[in-house]
Amino acid sequence: MSLDVMAIVLFAAALHAAWNALVRASADKFLDTVLIVLGAGVWTAALLPLMPSPAVESWPYLAASVLIHVAYFVLVAVSYRSGELSFVYPLMRGSAPALTAVAGLLLINESPSPGGWAGVVLISCGVLVLAGDSLRLGTFRAASAAFALSNAGVIVIYTLIDGQGARLSGHAISYTGWMFLLTAPLLLAIAAVGQGRGIVHRIRSGWRMGLLGGACTLASYGLALWAMTRAPIALVAALRETSVVFAAIIAASFLKEPITRIRYVSIITVCAGAIAIKLF
Question: What are the pLDDT digits (tens) for 44-58?
Answer without folding.
Answer: 999 889 889 999 999
